[in-house]
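Working notes for the structural subgroup meeting. M.R. asked for a predicted model of this chain before we commit to crystallization trials. I am recording the input and output together here so anyone reviewing the notebook later can reproduce the run.

Input as submitted:
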Amino acid sequence: MKKAIFITGLLFSIIGIAFAQTGVKKKRPLPYEFGRVVINNYSEASNIAPVVFDHWLHRAKFTCRLCHVDIGFAMTAGASDIKARDNINGYYCGTCHNGTRMFGDTSAFSSCKEESGSMNATCDRCHSLGKNVTRKYDFREFVKGWPKERLGNGVDWEKAEEQELIMPYDYIEGVSIKRAKLVVQDDFKIVSKVKGMPNIIFSHEKHTVWNGCELCHPEIFVGIKKGLTQYSMVSIYEGKFCGVCHNNVAFPLLDCQRCHLQEVK
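Returned structure, recorded in token form:
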């Protein structure tokens, strides 16, 4: 009986997805494609291939907060309006990709060099859409032996971080500010509005590892008082609130049981 109720709840969610995505079933991306962003603000207009940005590689090395708060990348693809000149001047990608910034014993290659009058092999590392470019890191080899997950990248990023398979950088000298260690808030329950659907258990601890507070508040969730922000599954599927990340980069919304944990009795 409980299984039947849960399946009914899932069907409601799937119907919600269909409406939120205009009823068109999308191709599920391959694990290494999940979270991929194509940046094409000015590339094609300048006769250059658009940039292909792999989130999986960067999230394995850096926290979300570092890129989207300290460096200042917008949370929506294309909204940062990045120009090559910005990178050359040390902003956006150029914050790290300047040829001198060290992470451990590795330096990030320099992007958008001043002397680059035409496309070269270094340019192709980013401007790679439609090209057969050999990447430095192969996804399958990179995540080999990591804890698995059913959807998204097929990687359980939380467990990978807990097991110290990855230790994302959260500070860049000259860019970040020193922050006091956060006091971890208790998990709390969000009651499901669909009869029979398990309640959501939201973990601040899991989110603060990657996001801190500033990434979510107040831009995505207004204020810090529980219940102040009103949202629904439809708005989340439209890419708002939880859907800002969980439609695109973090585990996808199809993985219902990652959030809906508490059985309704």
